[in-house]
Amino acid sequence: MTQLQKTSFKASDYRSDNTPIWCPGCGDFHVLLSITKALVELGTAPENVAVVSGIGCSSRIPAYTNCYGFHGVHGRSLPLGAGLKVARPDLTVMVMSGDGDGFSIGGNHFLHACRRNVDMTYVVMDNRVYGMTKGQPSPTTEPDWDSALSPGGTGLSPFHPLVIALASGANFVAREFSGDIKGTTRTLVEAVRHPGFSFVEILSPCVTFRPDERAWKTQIHAAPVEATDDPARAARRIMTDDGFNVGVLYRGNRKPYNTHVKDTAGDPAILEEEFEI
User: Which domains does the chain have, with CATH numbers?
Assistant: First the structure.
């Protein structure tokens, strides 16, 4: 990555030369645009930003940015991001995921990342389907969604990420729609600036395997009430949520996880002595 000795940046400064290979119409194109716009507003140099991901369509984002990036294994992006932030608290750490990567195999890490409250931002592009592996139902898929791979639907209650994030201790909880670039950019900026673990669910349509999601742009609406710092009030609001309220739900005031790391540099021979049998 090229070091940029600048005090102000453009969106192009945060984009790599790699051309995105998402399907035409994928909402992740707009999410990538919102991320670069948010970084411009934050004014953080690309070399001071780390973008971490797991596996999936959404997890390609590190390759499309000109920041430091780590493309990890399926479902393990959050512990990677947390470890990086604890070791390098000076970095702005953003973790990218999808509903399959983040809420299925990565579900356990999601719970504990919220609980630990490390100061980083978790962005999940939720399209309610496994897009990269050809259209299987995901944890957030509606129980009656009929497809060739799940005739008649799964019949399973969908995972509710905002409820889980709030109950598990996330310090900032929000939902946006990928097509609303201005709103998504604004929320991402606030999420990064808010202390502690920030979770932003972005409804990002997969028009290849879920063409019905084209209707999301007419179903999205601003949340009827303002964001709160009271988890009880936030819980009451979210339990009656129709899945299409967008905006900030909760701004908490929990103290972030202590990322102060002592200087442990020393003589390797002394360290080896501690492991001698």
Answer: 11-273 (3.40.50.970)
